[in-house]
Specification:
The complex is a heterodimer of chains A (563) and B (388). Chain A has 563 residues and is of the alpha+beta class. Chain A has 16 helices and 23 strands. In chain A, a hairpin with a 5-residue loop joins β18 and β19. The longest helix of chain A has 16 residues. Chain A is globular, with a radius of gyration of 24 Å. In chain A, 61% of the residues are buried. Chain B is 37% helix and 18% strand. Chain B has a nine-stranded mixed β-sheet. A two-stranded antiparallel sheet of chain B has the order 5-6. Classes of the chains: A alpha+beta (563), B alpha/beta (388). β3 of chain A pairs antiparallel with β3 of chain B, so a sheet runs across the interface.
Chain lengths: 563, 388
């Protein structure tokens, strides 16, 4: 029915509640409704650690119009923004509400010294956090895997960043629109964690987006130009991300299949006219276009190079400017994509309007440990024929997009910059499987669990097999050797400070197992590391081992092994 | 017409002050295996969607929803996290089934709070960072303020609240899964140390680890799966004001609105007459009375007599928290709501053993995510499928 958003800003003066309110108000005004018309509120927001508020959904609820109303906050990491539109859909489709306000809020700037602090605790508490991973690692590892598998040219990937930042120059809410940016600018930008460079990455941001959804019956009363949710899908892959091949986002394809089936889309490339795939990094847009079955695996980069994805191309992708251009307040950025399809399909996208009266679009978001896919298909058809023409629709987004950006100096000097630090400490039970694994490491051995159902050896071990969903059968010892499945060369710390010596994180596929784990490489020139290189564990001296993933100091190339 | 929804399987694990040696994944796996066995489902073949309920700071993991699929059999399936109590997960699962996007849904919630070393500090972070944190030293203070306002408004006394705490601890003597059963009297509770007056030490639920998994199914699938379905007759949920400065102190208005929605869906006109058993939030003893009132099960003026005359006891007119509630089973945080559902299911199936209440046809379960929140979910469960 309606959509609204705040500006996406590096730092907003508004609190999270105020951002949620501004977006909600804009969405309601866009379809000339007041809060009285709303039966239920669906909210999303990414980690509580950003706002530094425990039970953040409760805290934000009144800002999102939930006082006295049914209210639930759902949450699927980076996939949340698109997911909350799905939540709105089933809240209406279940018959539990007629008109629903869907709100996505994110205020990342509160986290000090850098929003990445919130991501330090997304990694496995026992096996990964001791290695000191930073968020860039996993993107760089996935990007390298994608590039290596298909022999991709970085220039073609950089074309995505160029396209999106240029598209965003036409978006009134955008943080990083640049109409003059070139591929050379991207390739010349600072290398953060090879192959990721600064202009491959979307910026941390504050902002909020809201939509108004309605049942068929209510829609008829509210507007004569509804945009219909034709299909929804969502899907989650295993948390053991080092046990998967990162080259293809299977979870996105699974989610897309569900959404397309519901929407009656059998030939996505022909029947989808606009795509808003999730683009926190430029390669992710391409990865996701392949997961959405709009391009064959490994072929989306050439489409970017050839202009197919441009606003006037054959399949416009991220005409909004995406996360790379508009900004990436995580949950809000996902819902921004759904809002963009709403505006595009109504022909209200102004300077961003895709030519040719598009009739169907797909929005997608992604998150967690490269693991979740959320997909929504929107179209101009799908409901009953409408006859009512009661209310005129105002063009959106409104001429003045709400939001007050602050510079760092203004923020520090402002009344109301309140500092606080949560004392959040934990002592986790490593559990039956990982305790024994850690005990093995102390003895210089790598242990796995065998599942006789699917004939896999699971490293890291677990007492259950997630595929067969049965208890695993036996302990086995595997060799402390493996091959580099993918790697990165990381030049910055988690708070984006330069590192004197670059780190080389890698996913090591352990020989004799069906998996492997995250670790770092040592005794090697970074320029010599290759995907597929044979490596061996270098153990700490026995006296220094504590039963930790750090009992392996690092992995190094096997002497005389593959280069 | 939307399909009816029933609970076809339940499983639990833990319900202990600590679950040493088990990881949260292994705890969840135990509960899930039992629930799937109870429902007779092959999770990899039969389940369409999964709903998990968790809050990041209690897990110590940002984006905790990452870590749930494997131990539930949910890899490559639709999985979502509801940031809140498990009863909101039941509401969500019900919506998924009624919308037609799923026929069988698994709902999970757990507590591994024994892993948390600084719970007080984390709970303090639920308060407004600018207005309240500098002023309010502990979330318990908010409970004390609310309890005092509740007693002022209703004329109930500290002794009534103490009797509730004693009742629930005693009820759990018949509950083999309870973490904190005890043979206590009202005087024992009344003699315990005041924390944030009028709230006393023995009126605060002790924390516990545990996991509950519930399997929901659409009516077409129910008869294939079980001979003893528990029907979800009504579901309602609502928020109040999370802002301390503008909330209705001493009254759970959000519970009242949630209950009204749930009763409307279930076709219940006179809850006090039609409901045979209630499992309500009792994270603090006074909350049980506040919630019984908000659920429309008793007038405030009658609550004192009901408590004193034993009407809320298992043999009474209106058995409330026969399980022992959170006060005796332990505060399971996000899993509290599902612990309520677990007890209702066992009672409705006639599987509650020593604490079985006779002839339970309709039960109500209610949850609240704890201080300083103002939101609640309510579900009405029954042995008969009820109105379509």
């Amino acid at each position: 029915m309606g959509a609204g958003m705040t500006r996406f800003m590096r730092r907003a003066q508004e609190t999270g509640k105020e951002l949620a309110w501004e977006a909600s108000r804009a969405a309601l005004e866009s379809c000339e409704l007041t809060l009285d018309a709303v039966d239920a509120v669906c909210l999303t927001s990414a980690p509580d650690a950003f706002d530094g508020v425990h039970m953040k959904g409760e805290y934000l609820s009144d800002g999102a119009g939930a006082f006295g109303r049914p209210f639930i906050r759902t949450y699927v990491g980076g996939g949340s923004g698109v997911f909350t539109a799905i939540q709105g859909w089933y809240t209406v489709a279940s018959g539990m509400a007629d008109v629903v306000l869907v709100v996505a809020e994110e205020k990342m700037s509160s986290t000090q010294p850098h929003p990445q602090a919130a991501f330090l605790t997304i990694f496995d508490n026992v096996l990964e956090r001791p290695l000191g991973p930073n968020l860039l690692w996993i993107f760089a590892l996935e990007m390298n895997r994608y590039m290596s598998a298909y022999g991709l040219d970085k220039r073609d990937i950089a074309a995505v960043a160029v396209k999106n930042k240029r598209n965003a120059a036409d978006h009134p809410a955008a943080l990083l629109g640049r109409s003059d940016i070139t591929v050379e600018d991207v390739l010349a930008s600072e290398t953060l964690a090879w192959p990721v460079q600064r202009l491959d990455v979307s910026p941390v941001s504050d902002g909020a987006v809201a939509l108004v959804l309605a049942s068929e019956e209510a829609a008829e009363r509210i507007t004569d130009r509804p945009v219909w949710i034709q299909g929804v899908g969502w899907n989650l892959d295993t948390a053991y991300w080092t046990n998967r091949d990162l080259v293809f986002p299977e979870y996105v394809r699974n989610a897309a299949r569900a959404a397309y089936a519901m929407a009656g889309v059998t030939e996505p490339r022909k029947q989808i006219h606009i795509a808003e795939p999730y683009d926190p990094f430029d390669y992710k847009e391409l990865h996701h276009l392949e997961g959405l079955m709009l391009f064959d695996p490994g072929t989306a980069p050439e489409a970017a190079r050839d202009g197919v994805l441009n606003r006037d191309g054959d399949l416009p992708s991220c005409p909004s400017g995406g996360l790379l251009g508009v900004g990436n307040p995580i949950a809000a950025a996902g819902l921004m994509k759904v809002a963009e399809l709403f505006w595009q399909l109504r022909g209200e996208a102004g300077a961003r309007q895709v030519p040719g009266s598009p009739e169907r679009g797909v929005a997608q978001a992604w998150g967690d440990l490269m693991q979740v896919g959320t997909v929504v298909v929107l179209g101009n058809e799908g409901g009953p024929p409408t006859t009512a023409t009661r209310l005129p629709d105002s063009p959106t987004p409104p001429a003045s997009t709400p939001g007050h950006p602050l510079t760092e100096a203004e923020f520090r000097g402002a009344t109301g910059a309140v500092e606080d630090a949560v004392d959040a400490r934990y002592a986790w039970d490593a559990g039956v499987a990982i305790s024994r694994f850690l005990g093995g490491l102390r003895e210089g051995r790598i242990l796995g669990r065998e599942c006789r159902g699917c004939e896999r050896v699971l490293v890291p071990p677990r007492m259950f097999c997630e595929r067969c969903f049965r208890g695993t059968d036996a302990w086995v010892e595997v060799e402390p050797t493996g091959v580099v499945q993918t790697f990165s060369i990381c030049h910055v710390s988690w708070d984006m400070k330069p590192l004197e010596t670059p780190e080389i994180p890698a996913v090591i596929a352990i020989d004799g197992s069906s998996g492997g784990f995250l670790h770092v490489l040592g005794e090697v020139d970074p320029q010599e590391v290759r995907v597929g290189m044979a490596v061996e564990a270098v153990w700490k001296p026995v006296a220094e081992r504590t039963g930790s993933i750090l009992d392996i100091a690092y992995f190094r190339p096997v002497r005389g092994g593959a280069p | 017409m939307e399909p009816r929804v029933a609970i076809v399987g339940v499983g639990h694990a833990g319900f202990a002050p600590i679950t040493a040696g088990l990881s949260y994944k292994e705890l969840m796996f135990q509960a899930a295996e039992r629930a799937y066995d109870d429902a007779g489902v092959d999770v990899r073949a039969d389940v369409d969607s999964f709903v998990c309920c968790s809050e990041d700071f209690l897990e110590g993991t940002s984006i905790f929803d990452e870590y749930v699929p494997d131990q539930l059999g949910a890899v490559h399936r639709p999985v979502q996290t509801v940031a809140g109590d498990g009863l909101f997960g039941i509401v969500t699962g019900t919506m998924l089934i009624r919308s037609g996007v799923a026929n069988v849904v698994v709902v999970e919630a757990h507590s591994k709070v024994s892993d948390v070393l600084t719970l007080g500090s984390i709970e303090h972070f639920a308060l407004d960072p600018v207005w309240n944190r500098p002023l309010v030293p502990s979330v318990l203070a908010v409970a004390g303020l609310d309890m005092n306002a509740f007693l002022e408004r209703t004329g109930l006394t500290e002794e009534h609240c103490a009797l509730v705490a004693a009742k629930n601890r005693c009820n759990a003597l018949d509950n083999p899964r309870a973490a904190y059963p005890a043979d206590l009297s009202g005087d024992d509770v009344d003699d315990s140390a005041p924390l944030w007056w009028p709230l006393r030490e023995l009126e605060v639920a002790g924390r516990a680890d545990g996991c509950v998994v519930v399997v929901l199914a659409a009516e077409d699938r129910v008869r294939d799966l079980t001979e003893a379905p528990v029907w979800l007759l009504g579901a309602g949920w609502s928020s109040g004001s999370p802002t301390l400065e503008s909330r209705t102190w001493g009254e759970a208005d959000f519970v009242r609105r949630a209950a009204q929605r749930a009763y409307a869906m279930a076709g219940i006109r006179d809850p006090a007459e039609e409901i045979d058993l209630a499992e309500v939030d009792d994270t603090y003893a006074y909350k049980e009375l506040q919630h019984v009132e908000a659920l429309g099960l008793a007038e405030p003026a009658d609550l004192g007599d009901l408590v004193q005359e034993g009407d809320l006891e298992p043999e009474g007119e209106l058995p409330v928290n026969v399980s022992g509630g959170a006060l005796a089973q332990g505060n399971l945080f996000e899993a509290n709501g599902l612990a309520r559902v677990l007890e209702c299911v066992e009672q409705l199936r006639g599987e509650a053993g020593e604490r079985q209440v006779e002839d339970v046809q309709v039960a109500v379960a209610q949850s609240w995510p704890g201080v300083p929140s103002t939101s609640a979910a309510v579900v009405v469960l029954g042995r008969d499928e009820g109105p379509s």
